[in-house]
Structure to design on (683 residues):
């Protein structure tokens, strides 16, 4: 009797505990975001940036805001970005091939001959495909002849991150939009959301498209049924290295990588000295990849 | 009450066996897909959602359509819908089961499905879709079952149930609104990026759902000796007619915005769907026959429901009109809307989508499963009605 009573009581306690735990978890998941939003009236990402670790950069922010270009406001903190110099790539198309190949080898991106199964992180395409909103009329010879390298833009306002129902794709503090292949449920909402077509899906076992004797053991292969894309070589950047594509370009400086928020960085210097364009700026995603045409 | 589903004549069992066959084939095909991956479908990097998600989208509408019976009956006390309302509630249950199945078969990693709850992302529209779809499913099961049980005991339903009945009305609207938001909030997909997607979805839902109910009611009149009444059918036909016309009005507005503004991104998909899109000297038009059929069947359906003779004097023509409209709206939303949105892709390239046999059989099997559940639920509901009358 008492024993049974004990069980019942324990059961009740346990149930109460679970109820509280459940409620707190829910509150913990949504609560802070909601509160933050209500209090500051900004999205969490902006709010975080507002607490700036770099007072200098914060000053820069107020300055640009005052000059009336709030939309192009560089957020504070680190924001990794890239400049692709098409002038240099055009001169050596074989370099583009080398870059694509090196990236795909580095990240064990499988090769499938059937276009339906295709997976790509960085690839060559025509100018009008990379920039469909630019005028096609009377283009100069160089633009017609030369290809463009396209990759994930690591947007400052990534629609894929918003769309993902499991936070399997997320934005790092340094601006890299990354993927957790072990959490992705393969709903492909992010692929519909990406305005750049940067995402690929593993329609079949990716290892079937890899030479398993020559894979890079420092980077995981994926399983079927998950989405993947360029990760700005987060695994290399974390070790203080440059992304693979930038490394392959080497002294040609056809691709430059660095912190967009650091006014003294090389990439900022390049952006200051050259006219650059971004892919589909009208989508409001604020891409971190810039092109010198 | 479930025992009512276990007694039936030989046609009842033959029908269930027929549906069961398709379900078994689909189960086999799904095992194949589960073991190989979604590469067994016709989807690709460029058309990353196919038949599964388009069926899901359409069926959310069928589920929401049930509210066109619930609302007049419970809110406006429209007595003529007394016998037909339960058909709407039970249709919603089976349509939602189909929706959820279509989502699951579309997942690349279905075993991780619960991540949507475990790692919930409240900024994702899919999160809210999960909540409203499951909520609406629960509400319909609860309301349908409690009210039917009360009817069987020939007592009034308990008062508390009306809270859930009324709650189910905004839920019905929300399931299709949130499903529309899956599409219309995405930057860079011009065809979907339109504020009229949600109203258009609702309009087509309020036509497609009731149209299916009319067809089923006419069948039940013949095979199950269950008559919902002429007045109810006639009122439903009016609702279907207005909703279908509203949908077409919204489609027309999309045409106007695209062609009058002359913005290429807005024109491309409409061009691809209805006329064929030329690209690098090749015309891509594999969805054109479907979309033209959508318009044709719409005209036929509206005509049959408008002409007094075909609508009121003949069950056959009323059924034909509703079938035409149901198929028409299926072509519009269950084929054109989702598949068309991926053409052209964000890089202005065109990849056409052709579903594979494996994929089609899985989709057919899920439809069969929905009708299997629907048959059983209707069998129970009608069994109860007959019991009261006897």
């Amino acid at each position: 009797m008492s024993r049974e009573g004990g069980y019942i009581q324990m059961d009740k306690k346990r149930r109460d505990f679970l109820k509280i735990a459940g409620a707190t978890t829910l509150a913990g998941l949504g609560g802070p975001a909601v509160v933050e939003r209500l209090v500051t009236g900004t999205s969490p990402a902006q709010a975080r940036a507002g607490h700036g670790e770099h007072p200098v950069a914060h000053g820069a922010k107020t300055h640009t805001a005052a000059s009336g270009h709030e939309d192009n406001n560089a957020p504070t903190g680190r924001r990794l970005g890239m400049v692709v110099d098409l002038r240099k790539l055009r001169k050596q198309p074989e370099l583009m091939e080398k870059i694509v190949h090196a990236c795909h080898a580095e990240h064990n991106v499988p090769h499938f001959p059937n276009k339906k199964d295709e997976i790509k992180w960085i690839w060559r395409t025509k100018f009008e495909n990379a920039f469909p909103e630019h005028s096609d009329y009377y283009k100069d010879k160089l633009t017609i002849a030369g290809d463009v390298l396209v990759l994930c833009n690591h947007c400052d306002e990534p629609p894929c991150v918003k769309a993902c129902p499991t936070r399997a794709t997320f934005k790092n503090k340094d601006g890299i939009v990354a993927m957790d292949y072990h959490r992705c449920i393969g709903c492909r909402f992010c692929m519909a959301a990406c305005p750049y077509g940067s995402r690929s899906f593993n329609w079949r076992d990716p290892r079937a498209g890899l030479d398993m004797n020559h894979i890079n053991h420092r980077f995981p292969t994926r399983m079927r049924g998950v989405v993947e894309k360029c990760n700005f070589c987060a695994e290399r950047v974390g070790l203080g290295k440059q992304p693979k594509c930038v490394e392959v370009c080497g002294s040609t400086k056809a691709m430059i990588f660095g912190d967009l928020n650091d006014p003294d960085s090389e990439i900022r210097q390049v952006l200051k000295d050259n006219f650059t364009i971004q892919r589909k700026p009208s989508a409001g995603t604020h891409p971190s990849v810039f092109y010198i045409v | 009450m479930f025992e009512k589903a276990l007694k039936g004549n030989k046609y009842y069992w033959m029908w269930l066996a027929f549906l069961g066959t398709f379900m078994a084939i689909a189960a086999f095909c799904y095992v194949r897909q589960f073991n190989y991956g979604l590469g067994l479908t016709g989807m690709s990097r460029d058309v990353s959602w196919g038949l599964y998600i388009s069926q899901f989208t359409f069926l959310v509408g069928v589920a929401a359509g049930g509210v066109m019976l619930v609302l007049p009956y419970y809110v406006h006390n429209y007595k003529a819908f007394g016998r037909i309302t339960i058909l709407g509630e039970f249709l919603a249950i089976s349509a939602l089961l189909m929706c959820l199945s279509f989502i699951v078969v579309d997942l690349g990693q279905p075993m991780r499905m619960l991540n949507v709850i475990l790692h919930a992302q409240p900024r994702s529209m899919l999160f809210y879709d999960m909540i409203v779809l499951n909520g609406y499913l629960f509400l319909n099961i609860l309301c349908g079952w409690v009210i039917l049980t009360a009817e069987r005991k020939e007592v009034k339903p308990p008062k508390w149930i009306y809270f859930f009945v009324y709650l189910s009305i905004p839920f019905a609207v929300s399931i299709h609104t949130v499903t529309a938001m899956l599409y219309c909030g995405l930057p860079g997909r011009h065809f979907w990026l339109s504020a009229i997607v949600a109203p258009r979805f609702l309009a087509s839902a309020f036509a497609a759902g009731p149209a299916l109910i009319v067809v089923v009611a006419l069948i039940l009149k013949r095979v199950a000796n269950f008559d919902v009444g002429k007045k109810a059918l006639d009122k439903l036909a009016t609702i279907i007619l207005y909703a279908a016309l509203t949908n077409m009005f919204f489609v027309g507005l999309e045409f106007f915005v695209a062609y009058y503004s002359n913005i290429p991104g807005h024109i491309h998909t409409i061009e691809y769907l209805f006329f064929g899109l030329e690209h690098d000297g090749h015309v891509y038009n594999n969805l054109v026959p479907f979309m033209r059929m959508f318009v044709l069947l719409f005209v036929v359906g509206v005509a049959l429901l408008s002409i007094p003779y075909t609508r009121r004097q003949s069950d056959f023509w009323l059924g034909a009109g509703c079938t035409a409209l149901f198929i028409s709206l299926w072509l519009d939303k269950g084929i054109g809307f989702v598949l068309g949105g991926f053409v052209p892709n964000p890089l202005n390239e065109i990849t056409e989508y052709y579903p594979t046999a494996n994929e089609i059989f899985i989709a057919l099997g899920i439809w069969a499963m929905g009708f299997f559940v629907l048959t059983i639920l209707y069998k129970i509901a009608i069994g109860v009605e007959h019991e009261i009358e006897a």
